[in-house]
Design brief:
It contains 19 helices and 14 strands. By secondary structure, it is of the alpha/beta class.
Length: 489
């Protein structure tokens, strides 16, 4: 179709009220550089072939007219469309040893098939396969983000991950296990770094493994967005709001657990609405008048004394009594001196695995210093100190005093000078307890005839803790003439 033909078409279309744009659109359809366009009559003879197809087949302009399409495309679907009257949409056709995607449509006039139209995507099948591969990749990404969202809404730890043999930590774990099975809100109190989040995860895992676990770090929520983040908002609630509205954290925790870390940082205005949500177990989105019933278990945590905040007017008294029916106090590390060796062995193993190092257990002198240090940052600080020491130490000598931060060394030296007087070596108070515990473990293993699971039950400690202690105290099996038996080596 040349410019003269376009002029004739436009003239005729003009009589029917069509614009010049329509004529050029029709020309684009026939000359579309992205697709091939062929028209055949009822005998499958070519009546029109676009210039791109003519060049593809090595034909002069107009040379294909009147020729049976099967001469150029033996596997063409056009004859099939002529014989059946059915369209074939997005099929694979072989054209000159190249597989392409195309469609064929019958032309029906007054109930008779008078011809057919064929449209072939000029891209090869390889290009289509590339597009399919890209679609598959995007689907995998969507699946990944969905799985990540689900993992972010699930707990990572259990009570087995809480290490310690001290009475204070075991009492906290035992009480938390009991509370996990009770339908009541929980308040966890403890200094920064003591493991409050670890307890929150474990409480959820103990009773609601397959249900949502929503974590909210209260200090990071902007003041002006606190209400919408926690309770959601409806469509058009404020400028910039999503047109579909947004689900809040409490709705996301429906039938599961919501963990409010550092709840003391919530504004008083939000505390009032939170109290109503806890009492009624229903939420009302920002900008909405409709309420929705929800079921959830609240686990709140704080590192400050909420009673002091209540007296200062910075925390609602009624909210405090609402969330403090079940209070779990987490002891600071300085009150768990007998847990130091166990924690050091556990985290040192984790750090070696992460750093791909092989630094052995700290020396007895280092353990003594750790036991006497006050640990203001608690377990989190202990991990940080071990990471620094591992990077400085060697795989032969292990962690020594010179690898420790100055604040630990200076504090211990000062306390040693005051307590030792003559300069003699200070005996750590846990050494005798260690010897006693080692003998108890050996006795339990022998009583259980080498069955460590039974031995752990006898000792009333998790198996993972027992395995760490067996390695710590170098307790092994010794061969005898009558077989082998457990004993200290």
């Amino acid at each position: 179709m040349d410019e003269a033909d376009v002029g004739i078409v436009m003239e005729k279309l003009g009589k029917y009220g069509f614009s010049r744009v329509v004529a050029y659109a029709l020309r684009f359809v026939l000359r579309n550089p992205y697709e091939n366009f062929i028209v055949v009559d009822a005998d499958a003879r070519v009546q029109f072939m676009d210039r791109g197809s003519e060049k593809f087949f090595g034909l002069a302009q107009g040379e294909a007219k009147g020729v049976d399409i099967r001469k150029y495309v033996p596997g063409s679907g056009l004859p099939t469309a002529l014989s059946t009257g059915r369209a074939m949409i997005w099929r694979i056709f072989k054209v000159k040893d190249t597989q392409s995607i195309g469609s064929v449509y019958p032309i029906i006039h007054d109930g008779r098939i008078i011809g057919a139209v064929g449209r072939m995507v000029s891209h090869s099948l390889e290009e289509v396969q590339r597009v399919n591969a890209e679609i598959s990749r995007l689907k995998q990404e969507i699946h990944y983000f969905k799985e990540r969202e689900q993992s972010e809404q699930s707990s990572k730890y259990t009570f087995e991950d809480i290490l310690g043999i001290s009475a204070s930590i075991r009492d906290a774990v035992d009480f938390a296990r009991k509370i996990a099975l009770v339908d009541t809100d929980v308040l966890i109190i403890g200094e920064s770094g003591t493991g409050k989040e670890l307890f929150a995860h474990s409480i959820h895992s103990h009773a609601h493994t397959n249900r949502p676990f929503i974590k909210v770090n209260c200090p990071t929520i902007p003041f002006e967005l606190a209400e919408s983040e926690l309770f959601g908002y409806s469509r058009g609630a404020f400028s910039g709001a999503l047109s579909s509205g947004k689900m809040g954290k409490f709705e996301a925790a429906h039938n599961g657990t919501i963990f409010l870390d550092e709840i003391s940082s919530l504004p008083l205005s939000i505390q009032a609405k939170l109290l109503r949500v806890l009492q009624e177990r229903e939420i009302e989105r920002l900008g909405s008048t409709r309420t929705e019933n929800i079921r959830f278990k609240l686990v709140a945590a704080t590192n400050v004394d909420l009673r002091t905040l209540v007296k200062e007017g910075r925390f609602r008294e009624d909210l405090y009594y609402r969330i403090s029916k079940a209070v779990i106090p987490i002891p600071p590390l300085r009150e768990r001196w007998d847990d130091i060796p166990l924690l050091v062995a556990h985290f040192l193993g984790k750090i070696n695995q992460s750093f791909k190092t092989r630094v052995p257990i700290a020396s007895r002198r280092v353990i003594d210093m750790f036991s006497a240090y006050h640990w203001p940052g608690n377990v989190r600080e202990l991990i940080n100190v071990l990471e620094q020491a591992v990077l400085k130490a060697s795989s032969e000598g292990g962690i020594l005093e010179k690898h420790l931060p100055p604040e630990i060394v200076s504090r211990i030296e000062g306390s040693s000078t005051r307590s030792e007087g003559s300069g003699g070596a200070r005996v750590a108070p846990y050494e005798e307890a260690e010897d006693e515990e080692r003998q108890r473990i050996i006795s339990a293993i022998r009583t259980a005839k080498g069955n460590r699971r039974k031995a752990a039950d006898l000792l009333e400690m998790p198996r993972s803790t027992l395995y760490v202690k067996i390695r710590r105290y170098n307790i092994g099996m010794k061969h005898t003439g009558r077989g082998k038996r457990w004993m200290g080596t």
